[in-house]
């Protein structure tokens, strides 16, 4: 499955967004759904909406703002859906909305779905006003023509006979995380690096699913050389709307944030592992203090630096493997605590036996 299809058909909140639109339309009301200027995979969204709503429906029409031109909604509908003989009976004093509702069974509007896309702000407001008036005059709730408006225009929240759905009310950063998790789930990398790649792609995406998809599909390079990958995407990839990707955030900060969320808990888990393993060999006295110079009264309050000091002072014996890992994790903790991210060569080497962060992620 392509990432764009996965986003709109599998990610739960995306599915809910489309399902809610479909339910309202099938219930007899019209719908406006609001998206951003750079809405992700807009054509895929339209295709899925049409497949879900128009399946088995004979009279469906997708109409663009360009094809409407400068005609009013009433003028366009009269010209496109009403035969010439019936149009001749129209009088300005009647108004398009009333004429079309009174004569709808003589037009091709009956039981139709009209899908309006790529409207200007002015066209959007004109069509919303027309549909409101049309709904107020229409006697039937089900047989009337139903309208779907896709818009980027900022609109109020309530309209007569029209439900407004905002993409931003449904989809958030954690939905991008879900997309990344699904995309990377089959990659043959350790869970800890899979989690790190997911977190890093989400943070660097700046709430853009398309950018996150570009990042996570190159997860190996994302982990090893994030900066080069981002530069490559900006130089060689384009969004579904044919515009370029951009990235203006502090990349070092994003990498640090991702590592803090994913790796810092592993460091703490390793600290507790050492304390549980060696606590009966640790003898606390007034000489064992924390960084503030305060006496440590419980083994569980001992930090990695203090454990290393005890080992170096011959007050604690630790096997060489644990001691080497202690040095490694102490360095990792110090870097993260001082807002420095860990270079990939520190996290994992080509030799699996030396991949400490990976191996120690499984410590209980």
What count of helical segments does DSSP give? 19
- Average residue-wise pLDDT: 88
Low-confidence stretches: 349-355
Please report the distance between the alpha carbons of the first and last residues. Answer: 36 Å
Query: The biggest beta sheet, please?
Result: 5 strands, parallel
If you had to describe this structure to a student in words, what would you say it looks like?
There is one protein chain. This protein has 364 residues and is α/β, with parallel strands linked by helices. It has helices at 3-9, 12-26, 42-53, 65-68, 73-81, 84-87, 96-102, 121-137, 167-170, 173-184, 191-205, 209-216, 219-224, 226-236, 251-278, 304-312, 320-337, 344-347, 356-359; strands at 30-34, 60-64, 113-117, 146-151, 162-166. 53% of the residues lie in helices and 7% in strands. Strands 2-3-4-1-5 form a five-stranded parallel beta sheet, with helices on both faces. Residues 349-355 have low confidence and may be disordered.
Based on the model shown, name its key terms.
single chain; 364 residues; alpha/beta; five-stranded parallel sheet; 19 helices; 5 strands; 53% helix; 7% strand
């Amino acid at each position: 499955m392509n990432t764009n299809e996965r986003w709109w058909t599998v990610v739960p909140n995306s599915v809910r967004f489309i399902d809610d639109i479909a339910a309202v339309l099938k219930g007899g009301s019209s719908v406006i759904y609001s998206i951003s200027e750079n809405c992700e995979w807009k054509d895929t969204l339209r295709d899925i909406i049409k497949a879900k709503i128009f399946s088995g429906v004979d009279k469906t029409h997708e109409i663009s703002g360009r094809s409407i031109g400068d005609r009013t909604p009433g003028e366009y509908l009269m010209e496109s859906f009403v035969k010439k003989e019936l149009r001749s009976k129209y009088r300005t004093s009647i108004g398009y909305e009333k004429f079309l509702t009174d004569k709808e069974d003589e037009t091709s509007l009956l039981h139709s779905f009209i899908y309006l896309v790529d409207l200007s702000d002015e066209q959007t407001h004109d069509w919303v006003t027309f549909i409101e008036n049309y709904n107020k005059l229409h006697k039937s709730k089900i047989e009337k023509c139903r309208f779907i408006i896709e818009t980027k225009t900022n609109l109020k929240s309530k309209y007569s006979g029209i439900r407004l759905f905002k993409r931003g009310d449904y989809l958030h950063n954690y939905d991008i995380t879900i997309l990344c998790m699904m995309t990377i789930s089959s990659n043959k990398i350790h869970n800890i690096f899979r989690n790190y790649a997911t977190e890093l792609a989400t943070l660097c995406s700046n709430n853009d699913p398309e950018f996150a998809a570009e990042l996570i599909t190159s997860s190996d390079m994302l982990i090893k050389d994030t900066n080069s990958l981002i530069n490559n995407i900006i130089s060689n990839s384009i969004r579904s709307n044919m515009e370029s990707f951009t990235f203006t955030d502090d990349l070092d900060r994003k990498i640090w944030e991702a590592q803090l969320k994913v790796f810092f808990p592993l460091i703490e888990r390793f600290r507790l592992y050492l304390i549980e393993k060696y606590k009966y060999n640790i003898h606390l006295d007034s000489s064992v203090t924390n960084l503030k110079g305060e006496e440590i009264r419980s083994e569980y309050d001992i930090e990695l630096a203090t454990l290393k000091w005890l080992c170096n002072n011959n007050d604690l014996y630790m096997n060489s493997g644990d001691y080497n890992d202690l040095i490694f994790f102490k360095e990792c903790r110090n870097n993260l605590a001082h807002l420095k991210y860990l270079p990939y060569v520190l996290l994992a080497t080509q030799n699996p036996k030396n991949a400490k962060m990976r191996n120690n992620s499984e410590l209980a």
